Amino acid sequence: MPFARHETFYIRDGWLRKGLRLVDEKGYAFFRDEEAPEVLGVGKNMVNAIRFWLRAAGLLVQNEDRDYTMSGLADLILKYDPYFEDEGTWWLIHYHLVTDPDEATTWYWFFNVFNRREFDEDTFLYWLTNYTIVEGTPVAESSLKKDFQCFVNTYLYENRMTQNSSPEDNLHCPLRELKMLRQIGPKSYRVCSIDRHSLDPAIVYYCMAHRSEMDNDSGRTTISRLMNDRCNIGKAFALTYEDAIYYLDNLQRRGKVTVSLTAGLDSVELESCDSLTALEKYYKSRFEEDSWWTVG
């Protein structure tokens, strides 16, 4: 379980775009080249952070030679949204960030294990420390504190420059625009209800299909699993039951899922569990006026 591999740097605007272009043009190994900081326009520690975030966000995958190449997700983003301008792209980044326990463990733990809508730093660190002990990999307190601060800086919508902070520490993190976290006291925070106008049903469908691929369930699941299983849409997006029903109803009207709530059942069947095909159709609907997501 890795912690604090971000070098204390949360994702900056433009980092993922620059990093993907570098991998696409020069290969992953170039991150270790002494010219990488100049090419990316950042410091050496930031180069390491960009490399980490690309992996944690599901944009790079490890091949048989233990080298990293661009994922199918990254290929589609570069094709349709190379400047990371579409809000859906950042929901995808969030989803992959919080569903991989092997990269950004704290992000995974918070959304899948912690299960608290309100928290402060002490509560966060206490339960995260407990989690590392239970998992058999105790971690230095200093590393967990770095993760806490980086996590808050990743999502806190109201985060602004303080009197003692440097401009470099307050560059914008695009994930804040998802408005998932707000400050409710001097040291306390609340996970916000999802903005249904921001999180597109097509993105939710992609995530359901992706999870179906990971679970190898042939596109058959239940509302209970969608809500309660780790790495599924309920956990990843902090959905309420009402949110889940809203998205399932929307997707059923579009013919993308079949939901059965009769005789005590809550079964859900996906039209297809090919997540990348679904995602490409979403991007085409956004940028090429494809009608796949139009309700008839």
Explain this structure to me?
With 296 residues, the protein is mainly alpha-helical. It has two domains: 15-191, no CATH class; 201-287, Orthogonal Bundle (Arc Repressor Mutant, subunit A). The chain contains 13 helices and eight strands. It has helices at 15-26, 36-40, 44-56, 72-80, 87-98, 105-114, 121-134, 141-155, 201-215, 223-228, 233-236, 241-253, 275-287, and strands at residues 60-62, 68-70, 118-120, 181-183, 188-191, 220-222, 257-260, 267-270. A three-stranded antiparallel β-sheet has the order 3-5-4. β4 (181-183) and β5 (188-191) form a beta hairpin. α4 packs parallel to α13 (275-287) and α9 packs across α12. It starts with 14 loop residues before the first helix and ends in a 9-residue tail after the last helix. 36% of the residues are buried.
Report the total helices.
13
**Overall pLDDT:** 92
Structural class category: mainly alpha
Overall shape: globular
Distance between the termini: 46 Å
User: pLDDT below 50 for ≥5 consecutive residues: which ranges?
Assistant: none
Number of strands: 8
Q: Could you give the order of strands across the largest sheet?
A: 3-5-4
